[in-house]
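quick one: nicotinamide-adenine-dinucleotide bound model?
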Amino acid sequence: MFLKGKSAIVTGSTSGIGLAYARLLAAEGAHVMINGFGDAGEIEKERAALEAASGKALYSDADMTDGDAIGRMVAECRDKLGGPDIVISNAGIQHVAPVEEFPVDKWNAIIAINLSSTFHLMHHAVPLMKQAKWGRIITTASAHSLVASPNKAAYVAAKHGIAGLTKTVALETATYGITVNCISPGYVWTPLVEKQIPDTMKARGMTREQVMNDVLLDAQPTKAFVTVDQVAALALFLCRDEAQSITGANLSVDGGWTAQ
Ligand code: NAD
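yep, here:
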């Protein structure tokens, strides 16, 4: 239980990778504030399970498109759980379409949720971490923070932005005991990936099986989806004192995708 006495905010943790982060952090004793959308009963079940593991867990319904709501979420964590000592910016959405057909509202939403929310989180959390002289900021970027794929203009732009933002804030906080790193997964089997299959089928005129094998796993030399637990295990390591010198890094968990 090496995170006993620490608190963590994980955005977008009602599902997928975020939920796996929250579970591993709570299993190590951290008091976790989860966030994201979904069925109220399901969210409460998750919150209660996290609380059973670590003694305390809260849910924030902050919308990651709303900078003020993000500020209130950080303040609520400070007041009710302490810290935040660990902030994982993970909420994200996807939309797949060629640039000339890309809906402007989807562009704006992806930039807001996948990129600007991370700025707002850092903006509010860094002063508290500087005061504490300890902090861990982790952003879920993507292989798409390093390389591009067609039909994902907003997502690739946002994730490249996350990589730059992460490096910048790592430099600004380097002497304060704070580390700031990206984790960049390849394709992880979560609802986010499952939901983009129909759009990719349409955009590329492919069957479901063709999208799975020729588009998604085509990029990944291991020919296997990454698991949410593999991603979360790396985040947990970054929270250890042994990881104090890892900052400003973009750590791939992508089955070799970006080695090509
Ligand atoms: P997911 O769809 O399972 O989870 C996304 C989470 O974000 C959910 O909890 C959802 O409620 C939340 N969310 C969405 N919009 C929000 C908003 N406006 N405000 C607050 N919360 C909001 O997706 P996932 O695959 O677990 O993705 C998590 C992160 O990992 C994303 O940033 C994604 O880009 C990144 N990622 C995923 C993959 C993958 O293959 N699944 C690969 C690389 C990176």
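The helical segments are 16-27, 40-54, 67-80, 104-132, 153-173, 191-204, 208-216, 228-238.
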